[in-house]
Every structure is written in structure tokens, then in C-alpha cells.
Design brief:
alpha/beta
Length: 333
């Protein structure tokens, strides 16, 4: 039996994370008391797979090689390789709840979090408990990696500044081994630079509420993390020293002055971003067949090239059903 859904405390990122608001309703009902119309519990009640620091709950049987399990295993590999992360013995596992579909997920949200807008996935932390909720969708891998990154970071380093927490989650959102995984972000940032945008870490670091950040801010946060992890030293050493600083929260230490002392500044980030491989920006008016919203709203997923003209409704529905059937089969549902 899983625990009751966690009362929100630290939740971030528009479209995915819950805002930190004292007005959220206190959840009093246990998971087993809330059911779907067909008599099934709102949340899966049986842990299916334990992999590293994660325990995955899902309806039906899930194999060790299922897509979500592979995704979480690869995320642990990436965070371990880049940040030296290792799950500490005795740590509470990160609970991952994967619901069957959007209908079930929306039903769950309405029951436990009626004040919240609909979303695809979110991370909640309270004390030592860390929980990720999501559902089977074409963006399952992206959503799992992003939210589970927040869970790993919180377990290893405690509360982080908003921009750094989101920048790291953005960085680990895609499989770093995959060729050209960073290309969509590089393309968007180059478009920002062509519009006379300039990075400003002092402004970014001043943000404490998720509502203050727009999509360009998320891209900038990703850019700073990319510079620190892939640029010249001592960037990575300074980042790791900051992450592991035991009195960071008490002293409210900021990373920008530390980087400035090492001559890592806004101009350096701009130089780094300009050096990233990217698709050249073409100054042409997008055709009516393109979908600019998907390209501009980065939190909705990796940006793809302009889409082909939409398929007829019936054909589109068949394509979506086929995709969801494949996802379901990967999960063993």
C-alpha cells in the first residue's frame, strides 16, 4: 500500500511543478480510499520494480527492461557521471507513480489537488519523502527524467536555488548519451541571442518564485549548467563545491559571486553558447503547417523541426492510438 499523497512543499516549474503556496488543501484521505469509476485505486498500490534509488509503482506488471525503468536507470547513470551522485545507504527511495493514462491522472489530481491546474507530471517533497507522479504519454521519458532529477538533487544536496535546481533538471532531462540531445536547446538559445537577448545571472539568481521565470529563463539556467559542466575549469569544481557546501542554506550563499571571482560571467556564457553546435537560424516566416507553440514552449518537451501538415483527423487518431499501445506494451500494461 503506498503512502498518502504528499502535502506539497517544494514544487517547481510551470506546467509540471506545483507552486509553493500555503493555500493548497491538506490531503486527508489515504490513497486506498479514493477510487476510479471502475473501482480501481486512484494510485497503483503495488511496487513493481526497484532500480537504484527509485521504486516504481504502476498498475499491471512491469519488467526490468520497461521504458520507465530504463529511463530512470540511465538518469542515475548520467547524474552519477556528471555530479558523482551515489544513493546513500539507508536513504528513503524515491517513489515513482505511473498512472495508466491522462484520464486517470486528471482524476487523481482533481481528488487530491483540486486547486491545481492540469499537468503531465510533478515532484513533491516533504521531509525525507520524495515522490514523482506522472502517467503514460509520448513525453513519459522526458517527464520522468526531469522530475526524478529534482528528487535526486534534493536527496543529495537539499534545497537549491530555484534557477540552479531547474537548470540541472533541464540539463538531465534528455539522455546525454543520445547524439544531438542538446541540439534543440542550442537552437532556441541561438534564436534568443539573435533577438538581442543577453544572459544575466544576477537577475536569474534573484528569482525565488517559479512564477518569476519564463521559458527563456529556463533556457538560460540550462546554459549556465552546461557551461559549468562542459566549459573550462574551474567551472565544474566551483559548482560541485557549491552543491556540497554544508552551510549553503543557512548562509544563503549565492553562486554568482563565486563564479565572478573565477572570471566566469555573463560574457563567458554568451561565448560558450555561441560555440555550441546548432542548426543555423533561417529568417523566414514559418509556414502555416508549422507548430511554433511546440518550438517556443520548451517545458512542453524537446523541440522538433517544423511539423509536416497535419494528418486527417481519423489518421491522426489511429496514429495516437498506436503510439499509446506501444507505450503500454513497454510498461507491460
Amino acid at each position: 500500500m503506498p503512502r498518502s499523497p504528499v502535502q506539497p512543499r517544494t514544487l517547481r516549474r510551470p506546467g509540471r511543478h506545483l507552486p509553493a503556496a500555503a493555500s493548497l488543501l491538506l490531503v486527508l484521505a489515504w490513497a486506498g480510499c479514493a477510487t476510479l469509476d471502475r473501482g480501481q485505486s486512484l494510485l497503483p498500490t503495488t511496487p513493481q520494480v526497484r532500480t537504484g534509488p527509485f521504486v516504481v509503482y504502476a498498475n499491471g506488471t512491469m519488467s526490468e527492461d520497461a521504458l520507465p525503468v530504463r529511463c530512470l536507470r540511465e538518469l542515475e547513470r548520467d547524474v552519477g557521471h556528471e555530479l558523482g551522485y551515489h544513493a546513500a545507504a539507508g536513504d528513503e527511495p524515491v517513489e515513482i507513480y505511473i498512472l495508466k493514462d491522462r484520464h486517470d491522472f486528471d482524476h487523481f489530481l482533481k481528488f487530491y489537488y483540486p486547486e491545481l491546474p492540469s499537468r503531465r507530471a510533478f515532484f513533491i517533497a516533504k521531509g525525507y519523502q520524495r515522490v514523482v507522479y506522472t502517467y503514460i504519454s509520448p513525453r513519459l521519458e522526458e517527464d520522468l527524467r526531469h522530475e526524478a532529477t529534482h528528487a535526486l538533487l534534493r536527496g543529495a544536496y537539499g534545497d537549491l536555488p530555484l534557477w540552479l535546481d531547474e537548470g540541472l533538471a533541464e540539463y538531465f532531462e534528455t539522455d546525454l548519451v543520445r547524439p544531438s540531445a542538446e541540439r534543440p536547446r542550442a537552437d532556441l538559445i541561438m534564436a534568443d541571442l539573435h533577438k538581442s537577448w543577453s544572459p544575466n545571472l544576477e537577475r536569474l539568481e534573484s528569482m525565488t518564485e517559479v512564477g518569476q521565470m519564463n521559458q527563456r529563463d529556463y533556457r538560460e539556467a540550462w546554459g549556465w549548467v552546461h557551461l559549468l559542466l562542459n566549459g573550462p575549469e574551474p567551472g565544474k569544481k566551483l559548482l560541485m563545491a557549491y552543491l556540497t557546501k554544508t552551510d549553503r542554506a543557512e548562509t544563503k550563499a549565492r553562486l554568482r559571486p563565486i563564479l565572478a571571482d573565477a572570471h566566469i560571467d555573463d560574457a563567458g556564457l554568451r561565448t560558450h553558447l555561441n560555440a555550441l553546435p546548432h542548426t543555423p537560424v533561417v529568417a523566414t516566416k514559418p509556414s502555416s503547417a508549422s507548430r511554433p507553440a511546440a518550438a517556443l514552449r520548451f517545458q512542453d518537451g524537446p523541440t522538433a523541426p517544423p511539423a509536416a501538415p497535419s494528418a486527417p483527423p481519423q489518421r491522426e487518431r489511429e496514429r495516437e492510438r498506436g503510439l499509446f499501445r506501444r507505450l503500454g506494451s513497454w510498461l507491460g500494461l
